[in-house]
Amino acid sequence: MTEALRPPPSACPACAVVPAAVETATAATGARLLLSLPTIHCAGCIATVERDLAKHPGIRSARVNLTLKRVSVDAGPEVTAAALIERLGRLGYEAHELDPGVLSMTETDRQGRDLLMRVGVSGFAMMNIMILSIAVWAGAEDATRDLFHLISALIAIPTVAFAGQPFFRSAWSALRAGRLNMDGPIALALVLTVAISVYETMQSGHHAYFEAVVMLTFFLLIGRYLDHRARALARSAAQELAALEVPRAIRLRDGEEAEVPVADLAVGDLVRVRPGGRVPVDGVVTAGRSEVDRSLLTGETLPVVTAEGALVSAGEVNLTGPLTVRVTAAGRDSSLHRMADLVAAAESARTRYTTLADRAARAYAPTIPLLSLGAFAAWMWISGGDLRLSVNIAIATLIITCPCALGLAVPAVVTAASGRLFRKGLLIKDGTALERLAEVDTVVFDKTGTLTMGTPVPDNLDAHPEDALRVALALAEGSSHPLARALAEALRARGLSPAAVEDLREAPGYGVQGRWGGRDVRLGRAGWVGATHAATTGAYLSLGDETHSFTFTDALRPGAEDVVRGLQAQGKAVWLISGDVAPAVEAMARRLGIAHWQAGALPEDKAARIAALQAGGARVLMVGDGLNDTVALSAADVSISPASALDAARAASDMVLLGRDLAPIADALRIARLSTRRIRENFWQSGAYNAVFVPVALLGFCTPLWAALAMSVSSITVSLNALRLK
Amino acid sequence: MEVLAILIPVSLFLGLLGLGAFFWTLRRGQYDDPEGDSRRILNSDYDDRPKRDDE
Known about the structure:
Distance between the termini of chain A: 28 Å
Largest sheet of chain A: 7 strands, mixed
Number of helices of chain A: 26
Radius of gyration of chain A: 32 Å
Shape of chain B: elongated
Strand content of chain B: under 5%
Radius of gyration of chain B: 18 Å
Oligomer: heterodimer
Helix content of chain B: 55-70%
Largest interface: A-B, 25 and 27 residues
């Protein structure tokens, strides 16, 4: 688990450079590889992966961590991650390399263990003190009671001093900043109760609250640990996603290629972009001819022809031929970074969300000390200045009101909910996302790459004779263009075999040609093939004299229809906003039954539409994947992006969809609403306990037995309520 | 009541023993993968002996 997120691109340039330097330093040792395995899920997977990796030469050991869905491999320096990824790919497991970030990994680990150790210590102390306390409650008297109190004190004082440190530290830092957080009253209660109980023991008094103090520490620490674990998991997931893409470019200098970090590129440099690679900078094409996919930037599905003199922007994907690009803007000036700046602006505009826990703490934190101070004053007046009695009642009030259950109310529910969503394939990156999701009433979808897979599928294969299809297959297999690959895959799936085409050649930017049975055959762009251009995405085949056109549609993402129907059934307004052309967007909207749609939207338009919806009182969930969605993603109240999305889009969203299926989104909304309701119920429950026990304490009837009972029963009911989340 | 002089130290000692065992498991990283550990018992490979660190 890695502690810090990669700083946003808009942070200072120095910060952006430093982590990269650290990354390369740790990668050099190569002794330990960390791979992310998003699809791993059962005992069989663990055994298969570990056994198979153990067979790989040079690997000393491989251990799967199912909780984090990754495998850590201890291997010699000759073992590369790429080889392991390929090996796992053959087994059917998707794998990604992760940056081990050794230092920060142990940091989070250490915090978690540290908390767990404090939980263990307070648990041990609680049980031992409870043994003694039960004897006291059962009627031990005089010397025996004093002895038992003394032993309890000997256990409780070091325990509170050690296990209570997280509360003391947090309370102190809040106080120094002039705020009062929930830990303030907690720390106060811990210290005062121990002090008074020690005093009572010395005076051989009847009541000492050692077990209550330690129990309070124990339950609160459990809440703290759950909270920490949920956040560490989310953080590691976010880090994992960020670690997948390492920004590198191939620089041409004096005819030699060298791989350099994108940050090192300067204006005027020549950069080579291989087919399939992402354009790292803004620039002008100086050599080569190809097509580029702009869908992540603009949402357009059709590839754009690019030749010498054409402008390309960072983030586009080069499809067919190699390109040489002269850099016109790199780093902070590139369009990629301008987008990042827009995102940063939108994010700072998003009002800081106040969570339910914040609101509860704000209302509750001052009440606790005030109430017990009031009890003290009232009893001083009633008893005519009996200091010892008044202090005892004040302490009883303090410990009864201390929000043991309140500390568990939120973490227990969030842990249960995020666990459920994680199993469904949805990862929560931001702790408050669940609550924001619960309030959503409008859902905005992007089209390309979100509702669709972003990959084309031929839809009119039946219209062509088999001969033509076989020739098309032979030609299509000679190209790596996405349309050709989609065509070849679809034809192979029909069980066709390629025709005997000779002299197969690819003309980058145009298509593939060859000779078949004495005839020139071509597959590619309409103009080059000699066919008339159809309205939709297409590839054209000429068989000497006759031509055929293959049209493509973008395949719907699995679950897209279900999710739209599910959301509409829940009464949410569904919007489709895309940068693609109107006919394509309208067709998609009609197919999915979406009434509101907008086509040709620029990134700013999307954000403006969301702002308009928000101004109308709507709470908006944005689902998008492209760079053109990032501004909208950060402007929306809550946002989700698929794992296939661009780095920047995932960074801007609150949740990430791990699988290909969209269906978990509808579930997520339901679970979010349910968990918010559980959190509210938990607050009411712990409030109800206080409503019953606080008057008892104020009237001076509260004994340590009552305090212990109230605390444990309320904590247990709150936890059980969280587990009811289905 | 003299029996308390023996019983209390004994109970504290046993408790400390448990705490020590907890620390040991914590330090050996036995709580790092609760999900995986609960599935591993379903694994059909049997080990003759526990895995050692130097293997």
